Amino acid sequence: MADLSVVGKHNHATMEDVEKSPTKTSGDEFECEFTPREQKHIIHRVDRRLVVTVGILYCISLMDRTNLSAAAIAGMTKELNLGVLIGTVSRYSVVTLVFFTTYVVFQPPATIIVRKLGPRIFLSVIVVLWGAVMLGMGFVNDWESLAALRVVLGILEAGFFPSCVYLLSTWYTRYDVGKRYSCFYILGSLASACAGILAYGLMQMKGLQGYAGWRWIFIVEGALTMFLGIGGYFAIVDFPDKAHKSLWFLNERETKYIMDRVNRDRGDANIQPFSAAKFLRAGLDIKIWGYAMIFFNTTTVSYALAYFLPIILTENMGFSVGAAQCLVAPPYAFAAIVMFTTGYIGDKYKMRGPIIAFNMLLCLIGLPIMGFHSNAAVRYFGVFLTTAGANSNVPATMAYQANNIRGQWKRAFCSATLVGFGGIGGIAGGLVFRSQDAPDYHPGLYACIATSLLTLVILAITTVVFVIQNKRAARGEIELEDSDEDHQRGFRYTI
Q1: How confident is the model at residue 483 (pLDDT cuts 50, 70, 90)?
Q2: CA–CA dist 66, 28 (Å, integer)
Q3: Best CA proximity match to 320, nearest among 366, 363, 376
Q4: SS (H, E, C) the chain
Q5: What is the percent of the chain where pLDDT is above 70?
Q6: Is the peptide bond before 36 cis (omega within 30 degrees of 0)?
Q7: 27-268+282-474 domain in CATH 1.20.1250.20?
Q8: How many CA atoms lie within 13 A of 334 on its CB side?
Q9: Basic and acidic residues bias located where (predicted)?
Q10: Residue 248 zone, left/alpha/beta (φ > 0; ψ -120 to 50; rest)
Q11: 15 contacts 35 by C-beta, under 8 angstroms
């Protein structure tokens, strides 16, 4: 994790230390007034200020989004009668589902709004507001009120993830972004790992002030979210072209270095004036929908685990409530290790497709073990493989699309559609494990296996297309990613 390491007393290289003679970096191949050491210090500062800040906020976002399962087994299901069926679907599944209806719908405009308002204002405000909604969920007395608050939560959280994906992609070159996406998402995985343990601790507050333990899960985590949202305003940085105005984060010369670096890599660091036609025209590129479908397949599995793993551990594997809350943590910790390792390898060897294929193979091995082995301990081992494969594929897919899209507004559109389809995957993930299929949940397992196989099929198709297009570009027959925003010749798809 060298690129995110703390540099100690050299965190902020002063301009007095800058050598006047131009240097070249081995990776960027452009004239630069900073020494290689100073260049690394600048990137480290970006890592610590940008990746860590949005990662911590995403950690809270994912915790707030998935603490429903912890509250469910802590007494919420019984108190609010969430086990009652509405047709063939339980009230609990409806409560998980309604979040994604607004979460998907409100994502496309989010990347436009964050560009206009700036990340500091937009992201910090929505974090504080959804923290207030989470806190309010601790005081509901019926399942309809809980569902209504989940709808509002979906509206507020809709803008966060696509805006972060878009913001990160504007700061880094194509073969730097994989590790950063992994670190960003690792913090989310750690949230999922620790959420169960935290929830178990908060459950012990049962009876305090007359509130049930599950209510304290929402109250405490909601208040924590609001606090971090306020702090986020002072830590979040703007887009590279405006970064020197973000609380003296970078000066203009350092900002120019970042932008020159990105321009040299893919030629899209400078923002073009917004045009609705230009923004929506990106939807005509079939590749964007291929990336989105891969993300849908991935999030179907990851959300299914997030929402139902504690329930599966209790009903299918026979663990107690306390044990299930704590046993959620180790698979996500293992997923974090796999996630960073694959992100590092992908950046180092400049590949994306094989990483996605590897992650899906982990799922295809883990899901049958998790669902069909007779021994509960072995089934729990399957949970490790499935959790690692599904969650590691989230940053891998983000890096795959980021490497193969150029143009600021096309990138914004792609981030919105990618995460939007991830939200649809959340809807699917919230429905695949139905209460009537307990305790084996075989239909849900079949659905997760099918999405993993579909990812491999789509990946094979895009790989063939990329190889053909790269060969044609090498012969000078076409200019890849041809549009009025794409000026750099020699661009090749990353396979």
Answers
A1: very low
A2: 40
A3: 376
A4: CHHHCCCHHHCCCCHHHCCCCCEECCCCCCEECCCHHHHHHHHHHHHHHHHHHHHHHHHHHHHHHHHHHHHHHHHHHHHCCCCCEECCEEHHHHHHHHHHHHHHHCCCCHHHHHHHHCHHHHHHHHHHHHHHHHHHHCCCCCHHHHHHHHHHHHHHHCCHHHHHHHHHHHHCCCCCHHHHHHHHHHHHHHHHHHHHHHHHHHHCCCCHHHCCHHHHHHHHHHHHHHHHHHHHHCCCCCCHHHHHHCCCCCCHHHHHHHHHHHHHHHCCCCCCCCCHHHHHHHHHCHHHHHHHHHHHHHHHHHHHHHHHHHHHHHHCCCCCHHHHHHHCHHHHHHHHHHHHHHHHHHHHCCCCHHHHHHHHHHHHHHHHHHHHCCCHHHHHHHHHHHHHHHHHHHHHHHHHHHHCCCCHHHHHHHHHHHHHHHHHHHHHHHHHCCHHHCCCCHHHHHHHHHHHHHHHHHHHHHHHHHHHHHHHHHCCCCCCCCCCCCCCCCCCCCC
A5: 88
A6: no
A7: yes
A8: 17
A9: 13-22
A10: left
A11: no
Q: C-alpha angle 303/355/380, rounded to 5°?
A: 45
* Token output for 128: 């504080």
Q: What token pair was written down for 156?
A: 């507020």
d(CA 164, CA 351): 22
Which residues touch 447 (CB under 8 Å, ≥6 apart)? 300, 428, 432
Mean pLDDT of the region 22-37: 59
Mean pLDDT estimate for the chain: 84
User: So what's the pLDDT on residue 490?
Assistant: 64
Q: Which residues of 289-301 are buried (b: 16+ CB within 10 A; e: fewer)?
A: bbbbbbbbbbbbb
List the structure tokens of 124.
């910090």
Taking the C-alpha atoms of residue 138 and residue 146, their distance in angstroms, rounded to an integer, is 9
Comparing 82 with 278, which gets the higher pLDDT?
Answer: 82
pLDDT at 205: 93
Cα-based angle 284, 281, 351 (whole degrees, multiple of 5): 60
Report CA 407 to chain centroid distance, whole Å. Answer: 21
Q: How far apart are the first and last CA of the chain?
A: 24
